[in-house]
Amino acid sequence: MTAPVALVEDLTMHFPVQRGLLRRTVAVVKAVDGVSLSIAAGETLCLVGESGCGKSTVGRLILRLLQPTSGRIELRGIDVTALGEHAMRSHRRHAQMIFQDPYASLDPRLPAGTIVGEPLENFSTLKSAARRERIVALLERVGLRADAMHRYAFEFSGGQRQRLGIARALAPDPGLIVADEAVSALDVSVQAQVLNLLMDLQEERGLAYLFISHDLGVVEHIGHRIAVMYLGRIVELAPKEIIFATPLHPYTEALMAAAPVPDPRAKRERLVLEGDIPSPMAPPPGCRFHTRCPLAVARCSEEVPELRELNPGHHVACHLR
What we know:
Rossmann fold, about 30% helix, alpha/beta
C-alpha cells in the first residue's frame, strides 16, 4: 500500500466569537470538529453536505490556509500541522486550490500569462524562455489558445476563467488539488466540459482531488468516494456506488432523496427533515443530527456516535446502524 497523498486525523477548527470593546471571546464556532480522512493518488474524494457544515473549512485547513485548532495533517507523508510559514513554503507546491468563483479568484489587472506563470516563479527555477513554453503548454492543455496569455482575466468568459484557474493550479505540478465548488458558478454545459477536463488531467497526472460540492449530480459524475458532513463532523464515508445505492445514515438518505432524478416518473420514498440546522456555536449533545432525525432514540441525544466501518470501506456514525 502506498502512502496517501493527504491524510487528516481528528482535525478541528474552532473560531472564537469576540464582542465588546475589549474583544472578549464569548463563544466558539465549532466549524470542524474531529474530521479524519485520506486521499490516495488518482482518487477523487467528494465532500458533500449542506451550506455551513464545514466543507470549505476542511479544504482550507488541508492546504494550511487556516491554522487548525488541533489535529494532524500529512501531505506526501510529512506532518505539516506544526510547520511555520517559511518551512511550509516548500510544501505548498504539492497542494493547490481551484476556487469557486472564477471572477473573484483571478486578478483582473494581470494578463493570463502572468497569472499562470506566478507559481512557476515561486516554485521553479525555469528561465524566462522555458517558463514561457511551460505557460503556453498549460494554457493549451486546459483548452485555451496560446495567445490567451496576453489577455487580461476580465476578457475571458466564466468557463474560460475557470480553465485559467485550473492551469494556475497545475503550474507547480501538485499531487493534490482542492476544488471548492469549482463548477457551481458555471452553466451546466460548461460544467460538463470542466469536469471532463479535470478527470482527464487526473488520469494523465495521477492527481488526487478533494472535490467539495453540494451538487450530487456532479459528485456522482466525478467522485470515487464520498464523505458526507453534517455540522462539522463526517457522518458517512463510502465509495460512490455504495452511497448512492445504499446510504445508511439518515442524513445521507435525506440528501439522496432530495436530489433530482432525470426520470419524472420515477418514484422514491422521501425522508423529510424537520427543523433548521443547529448553530455550530451550540451544537446539540450526542449525535448532532438527532434534533432533525426521524429515527432518533434517547441514546442519540446522550452519546456521540463513533464513525465505524460497518462494511468494507463503508463507515457510518450512527447508533442505529
